[in-house]
Write a structure and sequence with these properties.
CATH class of the largest domain: Alpha Beta
Largest sheet: 7 strands, mixed
Number of helices: 13
Helix content: 40-55%
CATH architecture of the largest domain: 3-Layer(aba) Sandwich
Bound molecules: pyridoxal-5'-phosphate
Distance between the termini: 51 Å
CATH superfamily of the largest domain: Type I PLP-dependent aspartate aminotransferase-like (Major domain)
Strand content: 5-15%
Length: 370
């Protein structure tokens, strides 16, 4: 068979280790998963009751227009219904954008390290990829702009960025958007938007009014705690949405996801509580890093990237055997760092205690010349 030859260079997405498999392998009673930036507090109780009282039928296809959810998101964001596109997670929207705009002969510009799916989809579509290294953990928008030419179709801006947790400031983003040519779609991936505390952050929805070549991606997987139900959305000028819609599968958001996301949106108190607990959790990590003299990137998300001054896989393995699943920075472009999701206060304390033990062990090994 004549597979696209670029497929042969790709490996499938490597999921974080599952709780069950780690339990078994290391004979542990309790496992804490801090690897995929899921919400440690689950989701709103309103979601659970909405799913009970509006049980969607298993045998019936979902509403392909997401009518009720669309109505809620549109009023929540104060946008028109035709300025929204929904996806089976925002991953799906990244795929729809790539499928719609990328092909051999065009290029796409992105930061590196950043979220892996931009590159993955661009490779599948056969586009040329221009990766611009982060500058102090942040997008280097000047260099990204310089990489744009007549053949550039999409630029990806991940803010706050995964895996560094850093964000693009309002001034820098606006300076950039002012310059990007109209034929280039700028994708602003805001998967962690709801966690942001920074003062100089922008109103991205407002920006979609000023810049007709901007699409903002958001998700119900992170602060809303609905990762398993797969709901994300994009906000953009109507003409962008119209162009993308034919590339969307007709029933790409399942009925349970639609009901759950709508109910989740209605509980902003839950969102605020999670945001505040996350901020306190980040401080637990920062205090530890200061004490241990470890470098980290100040984060606007629910994870933190910590340089442990040691082989990331070694640190990962040590924590795994103590019952904490985190992400090794190796595959993320930071070979001596760990990306750890902020958990509950107790989980944070636990993972930091274990990390402290690892650091002590490393120091002892160094002193004895190993
Ligand atoms: C988690 C994440 C996503 C994907 O979220 P889904 O909506 O679950 O597909 C997209 N972008 C970034 C940067 C993420 O971290």
């Amino acid at each position: 068979m004549r597979w696209k030859k670029q497929l042969l260079t790709l490996t499938p997405y490597q999921p974080g280790k599952s709780i069950e498999s780690v339990k078994k392998q290391y004979n542990l009673e309790q496992i804490v998963k801090l690897a995929s930036n899921e919400n440690p507090f689950g989701c709103s109780n309103k979601v659970l009751s909405a799913l009970q009282s509006n049980q969607p039928g298993f045998a019936i296809y979902p509403d392909g227009y997401m009518t009720s959810l669309r109505d809620s998101v549109a009023s929540f964001l104060k946008v028109n219904q035709d300025e929204l596109i929904f996806g089976n997670g925002s991953d799906n929207i990244i795929q729809i954008i790539s499928r719609s705009l990328l092909h051999p002969g065009v290029n796409t510009v992105m930061a590196t390290p950043s979220f892996s799916q931009y590159k993955h989809n661009a490779v599948i579509e056969g586009a040329v990829i221009r990766e611009i290294p982060l500058l102090d953990g942040e997008h280097d928008l000047e260099k990204m702009y310089a990489a744009i030419d007549d053949n550039t179709n999409v630029v990806w801006v991940c803010s706050p960025n995964n895996p560094t947790g850093t964000y693009v400031s309002k001034n820098k983003l606006i300076t950039f958007l002012d310059k990007v040519p109209a034929h280039v779609l700028v994708v602003l991936d805001e998967a962690y938007f709801e966690y942001v505390f920074a003062d100089d952050y922008y109103d991205s929805i407002e920006l979609t009014r000023t810049y007709p070549n901007l699409i903002v991606l958001r998700t119900f997987s992170k602060i809303y705690g609905l990762a398993s139900l797969r709901v994300g959305y994009g906000v953009a000028n109507r003409s962008i949405i119209q162009a993308l819609e034919p590339a969307r599968e007709p029933f790409n958001v399942n009925s349970f996801g639609q009901v759950a996301a709508k109910a989740a949106l209605e509980d902003q108190e839950f969102v605020q509580q999670c945001k505040e607990k996350n901020r306190q959790g980040l401080n637990q990590f920062y205090d530890f890093c200061k004490q241990q003299e470890l470098n980290y990137y100040p984060s606007q998300t629910n994870f933190v990237l910590i340089d442990i001054n040691a082989d990331a896989d070694k640190g990962f393995q040590f924590l795994l055997e103590k019952g904490y699943i985190v992400r090794s920075g190796k595959a993320l472009g930071f070979p001596s760092s760990l990306r750890i999701t902020v958990g509950s206060a107790e989980q944070n304390e636990g993972v930091l205690k274990a990390l402290g033990e690892f650091l002590t062990e490393q120091k002892t090994a160094q002193l004895s010349g190993n």
